């Protein structure tokens, strides 16, 4: 079936029609497909690198959000503790204020006196 090729026809490739399933595109035009494959590999590498950068950025942002959430929880707990302490101190101040008022009213030193009646 295959005829010998002349030197002029040496640019053609002999292709067996027996089994086409194993024939790859680079077998048909090796130079073009090889450069095309190299470009595709370079593009895939660039896309993969870009995806890796995006994944790292997402991971960094997620970690930052989690850290901020923990900080917010800590601050919220601190605010609650300060509120409780403030209420406790207000209550103690009221008790102490009432105690001081009672002491002052019971003591003769703090009694109001009429200074005009004592001078006469």
TrEMBL record:
Subcellular location(s) of the protein: Cytoplasm, Cytosol; Golgi apparatus membrane; Golgi apparatus, trans-Golgi network
InterPro entries tied to this protein = SCOC
Q: Superkingdom, according to UniProt?
A: Eukaryota
Q: Do you know which Pfam families this protein is assigned to?
A: DUF2205
Cellular-component GO terms for this entry: cytosol; Golgi membrane; trans-Golgi network
Annotated region (Disordered) at: 15-40
* Keywords for the protein's UniProt record, in alphabetical order: Coiled coil, Cytoplasm, Golgi apparatus, Membrane
Endpoints of the signal sequence: none
Its membrane topology, per UniProt? Answer: Peripheral membrane protein
Q: What does this protein do?
A: Positive regulator of amino acid starvation-induced autophagy.
The Swiss-Prot or TrEMBL record describes its family as follows: Belongs to the SCOC family.
| Name assigned to this protein | Short coiled-coil protein
Q: Which species does the entry assign this protein to?
A: Chelydra serpentina
